Amino acid sequence: MSTTTPLRIIAMIPARYEASRFPGKLMQDLEGKTVITRTYEAAVKTNLFQEVFVVTDSEAIFDGITSNGGKAIMSKKTHECGSDRIAEAVENMDVDVVVNVQGDEPFIEKESLAELLAVFENEDADQIDLVSLKTALETEEDIQNPNHVKVITNKNDYALYFSRSPIPYLRNKEAKITYYKHIGIYAFRKEALLDFYHLPMLGLEDAEKLEQLRYLEYGKNIKMVETNLKTIGIDTPEDLEKARAFLKKN
């Protein structure tokens, strides 16, 4: 979208203390700093945002960020998902685009986030409600893993569906198909985020427990950007060990 006024862009990092697969994961030690602190610092370091906030229901997370000079917001309500938590926080803020950085993604880097935001300057920008990232899955184990959310798109890279199951189903074994993992980093137009906040959950979102399906069910357009970013999201204790090993090597 061409405009003479620069977009006001902020980053929000939703951070629940409880997590079904790995409770308290955001406060786990990751080579001297908590997971959430490393994620916050990585987002700030990109210099892509006017401001970066952690938005949380946890006093421990809030205190952990603010005691180190970071910015955090306490949620006033109980929320089912990160988008709802962010929407409450930004409802009265003067912003154009809100980037949702997952709190369990401590290795985000500038290049992929810049690619995400650049989409709002493309010719089809007016059609886009939100943008997210995808990366190719390389092993059958990853394709079958329900913790790796898969995404399929149309020829213009708009999302058709997200699933924990392998999609598409490969009935024709000779078909040339690349499976893509959805990386849960989003850039929302503020109005799309607030629409989401005020709309009830429908069946697909409830079944898969994937908030991005609410956008699709209500007809929002999600543009997907392919990236080579190989993240280590902290979903399990095993992921945390992988992240620790990665930091020791680097």
Rough outline: globular
Q: Can you identify the CATH class?
A: Alpha Beta
* Helical amount: 25-40%
CATH architecture: Alpha-Beta Complex
CATH fold type: Spore Coat Polysaccharide Biosynthesis Protein SpsA, Chain A
From the alpha carbons, calculate the radius of gyration and give it in angstroms.
18 Å
Largest sheet: 9 strands, mixed
Helix count, DSSP H or I runs of 4 or more residues: 9
Unreliable runs: none
Query: What are the secondary-structure elements, in order, as H or E?
Result: EEEHEHEHEHEHEEEHHHEH
The N- and C-terminal alpha carbons lie at a distance of 38 Å
Strand-residue proportion: 15-25%
* Count of discrete domains: 1
Structural class: alpha/beta
The average pLDDT value, as a whole number, equals: 91
So, the CATH homologous superfamily? Spore Coat Polysaccharide Biosynthesis Protein SpsA, Chain A
EC number: 2.7.7.38
GO molecular function: nucleotidyltransferase activity
Keywords: Cytoplasm, Lipopolysaccharide biosynthesis, Nucleotidyltransferase, Transferase
Pfam families: CTP_transf_3
In short:
InterPro entries: Cytidylyl_trans (IPR003329), KdsB (IPR004528), Nucleotide-diphossugar_trans (IPR029044). The protein is an alpha/beta fold.
Description:
Its main location: cytoplasm. This protein has one domain (9-249): Alpha-Beta Complex (Spore Coat Polysaccharide Biosynthesis Protein SpsA, Chain A). 30% of the residues lie in helices and 22% in strands. The chain contains 9 helices and 11 strands. Strands 1, 4, 5, 6, 7, 8, 9, 10 and 11 form a 9-stranded mixed β-sheet that branches. A hairpin with a 2-residue loop joins strand 2 and strand 3 (33-34). Helix 3 (82-90) packs across helix 6. The longest helix is centred in the C-terminal third of the chain and has 13 residues, at 237-249. It starts with 8 loop residues before the first strand and ends with a helix. The model has no long low-confidence stretch (mean pLDDT 91).
